[in-house]
Structure formats: C-alpha cells, structure tokens
C-alpha cells in the first residue's frame, strides 16, 4: 500500500466514524441533558452541544481522554464505570449514552440497569459479533480480527462480545422497552437483517 | 516557559472594619499581596490564587537577592506555565490571621495598643474570601476569570462561588473537601494541643514573654507532615533506613531517617511560623462547612454557584483530602446542573501532590485555563425549569478562548522533594 492509499484508508475510517456519530446523534432529542458513559475524547458530547444544543457530562477513566475533553470544553468526570453511577440520581438525565463501552465492562448488565435508572432514554452501541464476516471467520475456526473488532482474542479489551440479537434478549430480561434499533455498516444505517449485515449494533431504549 | 523573575510584595490598608462570621469584627487591617502578569483593558483576566495553611501571597517568582525564594506554586504559575501569566493577571494574597505580613496575631491591636496574641478574632474561610473581595474592589476588579486554590485554598475557591458567585466565572479547586472529616479535625486538635500545652505558649501571649512555643509548633508540624504524605511515598523515601550504621538502642536519640526528617521539618517550621496563626488556621479548616447552613445538603449550598464553572482535581493517594471528598463536591454540582470537570490523578505523593508538578495534573489545569474565555459573563442566566423537562443548559465555552496546544505541554516528571516548604493543608 502506498502512503497515499494508507492516508485514504485512514480518512475513510474517519469519515465512516463521523457518520456513525451522526447516525447515533440523531437519536438524541435537541436540547437534551446527556450523560455519556465512556465518553472518550468528548467528540460526541461536543457534537451534540454544537449541533443539537445539548449539555451534560462525560464519564471517562483514561487520563489522556479526560485531558482531551477538557481541551474541547466538554464536562468530564474521571470515574471508573465499574464502580457504578452512585454520583447520579434517578432520571437525572434525558439521555444516557453508552457508546462502544459495554463490551469493555465486566458488569455489563448492572451498567445497563444503571443506564436505565439514571436516564429517561438509554442509547447503546457495540460491535455486533454476528456480522457475517465474523460468522465466516468463526466457521473457518478462527476468532475474527476486523476493523470493528481489531484485536486478537488473547489481547482484546472487548471482554464482552455479543450480538445484535443477544442485546434484544438482555433488554427484555431487564424490562427495557427498545424504542429504536438498527445496525451501522460503513457509516450507513442497516435496518434489514442488521444482525447479519451490520458490524455495529445500536439500540435506544426506555424503562418500561 | 520560564519563571516570572523577581517579584515584590505590595500592601493595602483597610480602615473599614471587616465583619466576621463569628459576629466579631476586624477593625483595621492590612493585606499583603503580589500580582503577576498584567490586567487587560476589560479587567477580565484576573485569577485569584488562595493559599493553604502555611503558604502566603508569594505564589510565584523569586525575591531579588534571596536564594531559593521561589513562590509556593511557582511550578504552576508563570509565563507559559499551566496558569499562564502571559495571558492572565494573577493575584496572591496573604489572609488575615496568617503570619506572612497581613494583619495577624503578632501585630498590634490598635484599640488597646497591644499585640493581639490569642485575642486575635477567630477568622473563617468566608471571612478570608470577604477580605480578598475587598482587595479586588480596590484593584478595580469586579469579576475574576477564575479563583484557584488547593487544600484549604481550594475551600476558599469554593467559598468564592457561594459568597460572590457573580464575581467569579471559574473555580479550580484542587485536593480539597466540602468540610473536614472527624479524623481531620482530630489531627488538627492534636496539633493545637501540642501548641497550647507548651509552657512557652503563655495562653497565646508569648510575645510579651520574649519566647516562642517552639516545642508545640514542632510537634504540630510533624503531625501535619505525616498526613500530607502517603504511606507509600513515605515508605519509598525513607523505609526503615537508619541514620547511623548500627542501632544505638536508645529511646530518645534519632534512629530512623523518618524521625530525622520529621524533626528537621518541625525545627524549620518552628523558626518561622506563628503559634497563634497555626491555631487560627486549623480552626478555619475545622469550621468550613458550607452545607451546614443548608440542612447539611451540599447540593442546596451549591445552588448559589449556578453561574460558575468548575474544575476539580484530586489525587488517589491523598488520604487527608481523599478523592471521595472531591466526588461529594462533583455530585453537588451535577445535582445543580453546573458545568464541572473532575480529574482524579493517580499520583503517589499523597496530599502534597497538589504542590508538585505531576504532568497529568498540570496538563489538565493547563487545558482548563487555555480554554477559558476572557469575556466577562453577562447577567445571570434565567432560572431553570422543573426537574423533568428537557431543560436547555447553556453550552460550555465554545472556542472563545485561546486555541489549546498553543504552548508546549508541561512534561517534567513529578518532583520527588517530599513537600518541604509546601503549602501543607
């Protein structure tokens, strides 16, 4: 690959990540008060602030990300999500985001319940393990290593791998009403057979 | 990135009595202060730095002809430093009751023509904030860009947003707490007893006897010092290292290096610090408790600070002002939908970390100040509607400030000095 091709590939990833962000941001009502669990560098909160007049806080554990949020002027609270959300009262946010976060948490189910407790609306996104290239890889006998799941099985921070369909079951089990859900594949919304056709799963839910 | 260079303290006299929280008044007083950088034409770039227990107005820079006279927060405040004096006008002021130049118990009470001594009125964090506000009045500063402080200085910074919320846009409070725990008060009480039971204390009027209760001051400082360091930091620095090659099997001679260190710190401290000031300042720490007037509800106390924005920083190994205490403040702010960022720095040094230049800590403080808008805040924002609505909060600063990364990041490794000469609590 030439340098130009590499730059092109990186830009493609960046553009599709930006589209993912826009697709998810559309689920957030304008002016909403948002809590973003695992907010990374604060990109989503800054986007919601600038384009949808939203406010709120990000939760982040990583020093460099906390610094990046402060640089962006995004409110960030440095906390380990595994310790729960005791800092936040019931229904104190309009929207709680858990984007590309739940796969890193040991206590995924508890955090899902906390999300539903603190927010009136919960929005999660995570890598869909049932995306067809992953299925092919497993059928060939190997764990997938892809753009969305870029790690080797022995070295991955994704300690919870689940599928689009799995989440529907988990949501039901926890009394959550899914109000919208779709897949994202290369920056495009996938509403037909998302469990097969999308590398990222997105769910919006409310407490029943 | 350099030092401010030589600085000169200034004085301001106040003849209008300062009403104190206790009901008493400070009839007539002088404040000693220093300033760094220049006040802009709009007078909107002023940052007040509040000092902790044994620090002073001398925040940064050096005194001409005095070796090792760097200010206590010289690593944080200066040209190109996290609080950049090329951009901000920084003010350090010595609080009344202290012993570094502002009116204190070692000065003459004009009403009776005698040294105040133990009769100096009990001052609180709130009283200091009010005195600082009067200094700003005289300097022609109606609104601070920010108030900054660590530990007891952090309490003053918080208090500013409660007492004079319209006069401060940002609060940066480091390694602080919404009040002292019972354990904290207990340490203070041991220190105070050490001082008042020193036969040289003479009920606080030792000046007339030409003596100083140095024994008490030494013990007070030794106790304080233990609480400023983490167990690990102390273990790493001293461990069980001996002063001599062999054990002396003596109950009173120094055997271990840690004893030597503490005695040295105590000796040094007793040479310059005033015993009555130590009592006054530890009491101010004990009394600080803004939630008390609000049914012990900290969130209700911080409702007053709705228009201010906050950066809080704590250190994981600080057991005197632990991260849990900072989180209480974060919760109170979040409950009020106030803009706050909170960094919990995994630093090994204990409470003293706030005076050291840990790169992660300084990077966050730098980013916060770089992002800070210098425009004065307009009138107070409209009251918020009920809890359940989609209430729109004003967005955070949207790029009005200087671009982040305009100056080089501060990278030097954390000082290992161990808090000698630090601000303490």
Characterise the protein shown here.
The complex is a heterodimer of chains A (208) and B (425). By secondary structure, chain A is an alpha/beta fold. Chain A contains 7 helices and 8 strands. Chain A has helices at residues 3-25, 43-52, 63-72, 108-118, 132-139, 164-173, 194-197, and strands spanning 33-37, 55-60, 76-78, 93-99, 119-127, 176-185, 188-190, 200-207. Chain A has an 8-stranded mixed β-sheet, sandwiched between helices. In chain B, 49% of the residues are buried. In chain B, the strands form 4 sheets. An 8-stranded mixed β-sheet of chain B has the order 1-4-8-5-11-12-13-14, sandwiched between helices. A two-stranded antiparallel sheet of chain B has the order 2-3. In chain B, helix 2 (152-163) links the parallel strand 11 and strand 12. In chain B, helix 3 (182-196) packs antiparallel against helix 4 and helix 4 crosses helix 6. Chain B has 10 helices and 14 strands. Chain B is α/β, with parallel strands linked by helices and 425 residues long. The chains are: A alpha/beta (208), B alpha/beta (425).
Largest sheet of chain B: 8 strands, mixed
Largest sheet of chain A: 8 strands, mixed
Could you give the order of strands across the largest sheet of chain A? Answer: 3-2-1-4-5-8-6-7
Task: Give the beta-strand count of chain B.
Answer: 14
How do the strands and helices of this protein lay out in sequence?
The complex is a heterodimer of chains A (208) and B (425).
Chain A: H1 3-25, E1 33-37, H2 43-52, E2 55-60, H3 63-72, E3 76-78, E4 93-99, H4 108-118, E5 119-127, H5 132-139, H6 164-173, E6 176-185, E7 188-190, H7 194-197, E8 200-207
Parallel strand pairs in A: 1-2, 1-4, 2-3, 4-5
Antiparallel strand pairs in A: 5-8, 6-7, 6-8
Chain B: E1 10-14, E2 18-19, E3 25-26, E4 29-36, E5 46-50, E6 77-78, E7 83-84, E8 89-93, E9 108-109, E10 114-115, H1 125-139, E11 144-150, H2 152-163, E12 168-174, H3 182-196, H4 214-228, H5 231-237, H6 257-272, H7 275-287, H8 298-302, E13 309-315, H9 323-335, E14 340-345, H10 359-371
Parallel strand pairs in B: 5-8, 5-11, 6-7, 11-12, 12-13, 13-14
Antiparallel strand pairs in B: 1-4, 2-3, 4-8, 9-10
Helix pairs in contact in B: 1-2, 3-4, 3-7, 4-6
